[in-house]
Amino acid sequence: MYKNSSEDSILLERQVQPLFENTMLSGLANICAAAILYSLLTEPLLSIFPCLGVVVFSLLRIGVAKHYLKTHRFKLQTYLNAHILLTMMMGIMWGVFEFIQYQVETLEIRNIVLLLNIALIAGSISTLSTYRNTYLAYVIPQSIGIFYLLSLYDTETAIYLQVAFTVFMGFMISSSLNMTRIHKNSVKLIRYNENLISDLNDEIRVRESVQVELEESKVGLENKVKKRTEDLIDTNVHLERVITKKEKAEQSLQYLAYHDELTGLPNRNLLVDRINQSIKISLRDNQQMAILFLDLDRFKNINDSLGHNVGDEVLKEIPIRLYSVLRSHDTISRNGGDEFVVVLEKLKDANEAVYVAKKIIACLAETFNVLSHTIHIGASIGISLYPDDGDTPLVLLRNADTAMYKAKKSGGKQLQFYDESMSHQLRDRLELESELHNALAENEFYMVYQPQVNCITGETTGFESLIRWKNKKLGEINPDRFVPILEETGLIYSVGEWVVAEVIAFVKTINDDKKVFSINLSALQCTRLDFLTFVSEQISMRDVKPSQIEFEITESILIKDFEKTKIFLNELHSMGCSIALDDFGTGYTSMNYLAQLPIDVIKIDKIFIKHIHQTENLKSIVKAIIMMSKSLNINNIFEGVETQNELDVIKEINGSIVQGYYYSKPLEESKVIDWLTP
Ligand code: C2E
Ligand code: CA
Ligand code: CA
User: Fold this and answer.
1) 268-418 belongs to which homologous superfamily?
2) Atom of ligand 1 nearest to the CA of 519
3) At what angle do helices 107-128 and 155-258 cross, to 10 degrees?
């Protein structure tokens, strides 16, 4: 099958399509016309040839058209040529028909033939004008026949008819050419539109495919972004791991730089840092700090005899023991080998360092059970104090080290201050302490009583009881030295009860219920409710009047725990005992506190008395105290009056009760009885 796809041949195909399609109709019209005319003819036999010709060529032409429409087997031009040829043959047949029938037929028939032919010429214009020359091929042979036929009319009519026919044909042919042109153009236009539509469709398709591609690439892009994001997350996770690893490595490096590997304690580097910080804090808060340099006794022996494993385990155990006896803010560090350093901040005094050092020595003296060995070691401690023994970490450490060396030389399990005088004080104190532990059992305490005298009347109103300690080794010890140790060691509770029992027993023997005996109380005692029970038991046991017993408290007690002390004092007071505020003027008691407590007596401290006759201001102050206490219904006792001058001033300012060497030193029991005997 042949098909020319070039644009021209497509245009031609479109143009001639109606020609072939209408062939059947026009063919049948010609055949019908031939049949009608043939039936009208008077001499049909003559015309049988052209009539048959019309029929045969019409049929052939129909055949060609059908063949083309159905098969397109040959070139279009071949079909066209065949079609035109056959059309022309039909035209010729019609021309011949005209020519023949004119010879034999009547005018009437001739006119019919003429009209029918003109009708065919007019009628076929639309079907044959689609392709150039086809119409001409059909009408020109016919026209010649008709023209000839017309010439046979009488001359005048013939000319007229021929002219008319010529004009008609001219009109028809020009119309046909025009139609051909219009048809061709409209085919072109349609084709153009089709191309346009197809181009548009192509465009749309291209756009659609571009759209699809875009969608696909968008999806692809999204996938890529997703993949990239996942990759990035993976990379991040990896990076984070690397960073964490690096940080950990740095941390462990940092840790190693500042810590001892074996015990995990701060090493010397960190220790120096900490001491520096502590120095700053101590300087700011005006506090003391102590460096305890600690060396294990006989540690070398353990390493040599039991091996380094055992030695290491012992060293690891040390911080555990140390932490158990230290405060959380104290620093422990390992200085290397068997040396440890403890930094104690915020010390009240050197005694606190002694207290901690002793606890350390005690806890390290206990046996170590390490890798199925029972080991005894001890520690020697050297102590340096900030700011007394140095104000830089290195000096403080060096001095503590020196002190430790001395402690070691004196036999192990010892502590030594860098400052020799400190060590002597320490030794003395330690001795006092150990002696005090036995003092009560050894019956070394006794009480003395200092009279309190009304300087106007000369009458003795009462006595202050004061404790004394006579140790067989150390001799007579001042209460200002041993009372604080009693408090620190907790011995004050038992000794305090002994004092109460002793005084009440003595009060009983005096048998003068006008005399008041005062007992000094330590701050610690004022929080113990069992002490109240003890007092009340002693009073009822000895059957003395509670009003004969007075308790002296100092202002420092009130500052510590006001509410608790208030309860304690109210209890004592409700038992019938009186309360005296001792050393008045040396503390910071607010008048407001005084008014809230059951105070019966204020003991004005001896520092007022000492200078009262020389200083007017002091006099005014004491006057004010007397006035204030009177308004609160509180009595006054002036302590430490030693001279006549002092007594005169007291009298001048309306003071009355006086306690001091002027009248008497504290007296032993037998002397009290003498004193009271007129
Ligand atoms: P304190 O309670 O202020 O006792 C008064 C102290 O002043 C006594 O000293 C006394 O002997 C002394 N003294 C009395 N008159 C004069 C004087 O004219 N001139 C001078 N310079 N001193 C005078 P002592 O007996 O040495 O007692 C010292 C401190 O010991 C007492 O001070 C008291 O705080 C404490 N203390 C004494 N006995 C006891 C006690 O049994 N229990 C408690 N907890 N503390 C006691
Ligand atoms: Ca007192
Ligand atoms: Ca006093």
Assistant:
1) Reverse transcriptase/Diguanylate cyclase domain (3.30.70.270)
2) 41
3) 10
Answering whether pTM is above 0.70, one says: no
d(CA 504, CA 624): 35
| Amino acid, single-letter form, for residue 385 | L
Which is it for strands 657-659 and 378-386: parallel, antiparallel or unpaired?
unpaired
Which SS3 state, helix, strand or coil, does residue 663 take?
coil
Give the nearest ligand 1 atom to 466 CA. 38
Q: Using CA atoms, how far apart are residues 529 and 516, in angstroms rounded to an integer?
A: 23
Helix intervals (H) in 613-653: 616-631, 644-652
What would the pLDDT profile of 116-172 be if each residue is shown by its tens digit? 888 889 888 988 988 888 899 999 998 888 888 788 777 788 888 889 889 999 999
Sign of CA dihedral 170, 173, 176, 180: negative
C-alpha–C-alpha distance, residues 21 and 68, integer Å:
10
Alpha-carbon span 384 to 357, nearest angstrom: 12
Which residue of 436, 452, 466, 480 sits with most ligand 1 atoms within 8 Å of its CB, as the best mutation to test the pocket? 466
| Segments making up each domain of the chain, as ranges | 7-179, 189-256, 268-418, 432-676
Q: Is the dihedral of CA 98, 100, 102, 105 positive or negative?
A: negative
Please state which architecture CATH assigns to domain 432-676: Alpha-Beta Barrel (3.20)
| Distance (Å, whole) CA 589 – CA 602 | 12
